[in-house]
Design a protein that fits this description.
alpha/beta, 2 domains, nine-stranded mixed beta sheet, 12 helices, globular, binds ligand LLP
């Protein structure tokens, strides 16, 4: 459920007309709904209660500081994977004790920034990283709390580019080697082992792979405790999928996911951490774009819009589906027209949808790509020297630009010509 609905024939974000925002901000732009962000965060809170838990929003899915503050003010923790994300969480007012630092290649500098600024735990992904973290912590006179990310060798049954829990993937240490790696961690002077971490992939639409992975984590918790490790936190990662095609997909609900966690891990007395990104931010955002031209090709009609793959890369990168709707509601019983929806970038991969039935559209009309809040703006670039897409946050009947569109001068001024040229 989200808060993008038609009122009097125009698509609104909560109580604000997207046409009105388009008129003042220009297109394309991302628009996020505070009510949807809040609702989705609370669904996870409720799903895990009464277990002691922390829902850490995966910042990588949507990292605008205003969005982070919205969630942080509700009590959310943050899952970060770089110093940049860490500093965004801090800038949003989230205290270090609610920030979990994940990621497969943390640099010494990133470790230092987080240790000095305060961090709940590092999710360590390899033995070399573990040794480096111990050294950095000792050099700062600190102790780094860690969970070790284990790779449970489970097939997440999702797109290959976003599956992370198979042994051939670069993530974590093999779960079979965990006892020996934990034994070394316990000996390192700069570390304190606090838990176990696992994350098997993203956009999972079936609970079975989670269940397999969490069973293995439950067994490992018992084994490690028997070996004397004080395992008190379990970080279960993110990955719960969302219905990108509303008409025919119904992935499991957070409540069902929460019940699974309670069933598999609830009796261990651990604090549960989860790192959802997409389920909180995905359906909380749309990308609004304007039709530039309708071009009739020999085989099909192209809707050429002013958003492109640099603004929303998911369709070209993962063949992802995003529902597309007109901002002005079509009259009832309007017959659909079939379009290829494409952007202006000079490659065929810049295609949002092929043979998509949509209400007939003309140049100047506005459309919205749904479910674009997660991995949308954060993956945007300036490819083709197109200006970085702006972001707008709505709350009830108010809206604010939370990242302005740069000017062409600003874009050009970031380059410099060497003196010798
Ligand atoms: N925790 C870790 C360690 C992760 O690597 C990820 C996502 C998450 C949590 C959040 O997963 P979520 O709940 O959002 O599924 N760009 C791709 C998705 C990449 C996901 C990477 N890791 C896409 O657009 O589909």
């Amino acid at each position: 459920m989200d808060h993008f609905l038609y009122h009097k024939g125009t698509l609104h974000a909560e109580d604000v007309s997207l046409a009105e925002i388009a008129a003042s901000v220009g297109t394309p732009f991302y628009c996020y709904s505070t009510a949807t962000l809040t609702r989705h965060f609370r669904l996870f809170q409720e799903a895990l209660s009464p277990l002691p838990h922390l829902v850490c929003f995966a910042i990588k899915s949507l990292s605008n500081v205003a969005v982070l503050k919205t969630l942080g003010d509700l009590g959310a923790g943050m899952d970060v994977v770089s110093a940049g994300e860490y500093l965004r969480a801090k800038a949003a007012g989230v205290p270090g004790e609610r920030i979990v630092f994940s990621g497969v290649g943390k640099t010494h500098e990133e470790m230092r920034i987080a240790l000095e600024g305060g961090v709940r735990q590092f999710n360590v992904e390899s033995e070399p990283e573990m040794r480096a973290l111990s050294e950095v912590a000792v050099s700062l006179g600190k102790i780094a709390p860690i969970a070790i990310r284990v790779n449970p060798d489970v097939d997440a049954k999702t797109h290959a580019k976003i599956a992370t829990g198979k042994k051939e993937n670069k993530f974590g240490i093999p779960i079979t080697r965990a006892p020996e790696v934990y034994a070394e961690a316990a000996r390192l002077p700069g570390l304190e082992v606090v838990g176990i971490d696992v994350h098997i992939g993203s956009q999972l639409t079936d609970l079975a792979p989670f269940e397999q992975a969490y069973q293995k984590v439950a067994d490992l918790t018992r084994t490690l405790r028997a070996q004397g490790h004080a395992i008190r936190r379990l970080d279960l990662g993110g990955g719960l999928g969302i219905p990108y095609e509303r008409a025919n997909s119904a992935p499991p609900l957070p409540s069902e996911y929460g019940a699974l966690i309670k069933r598999t891990l609830g009796d261990l007395g651990c604090e549960i951490e989860i790192e959802p990104g997409r389920l909180i931010s995905g359906n909380a955002g749309v990308l609004v774009s304007r039709v530039i031209y309708v071009k009739s090709g020999e085989e099909r009609d192209f809707l050429i819009v002013d958003a492109a793959m640099n603004d929303l890369v998911r369709p070209s990168m993962y063949d992802a589906h995003h529902d597309i709707v007109p901002v002005t509601e079509a009259a009832p019983a309007t017959e659909a027209h079939i379009y290829d929806v494409v952007g202006p970038v000079c490659e065929t991969g810049d295609t949002f949808a092929k043979a998509r039935p949509l209400a007939p559209l003309k140049a100047g009309d506005l459309i919205a790509f749904r479910s674009a809040g997660a991995y949308g703006a954060v993956m945007a670039s300036e490819y083709n020297s197109r200006l970085l897409v702006p972001e707008v946050l709505v709350k009830d009947d108010q809206y604010a630009i939370i990242r302005a569109r740069p000017t062409y001068i600003e874009m050009l001024n970031r380059d410099s010509i060497p003196e010798w040229l």
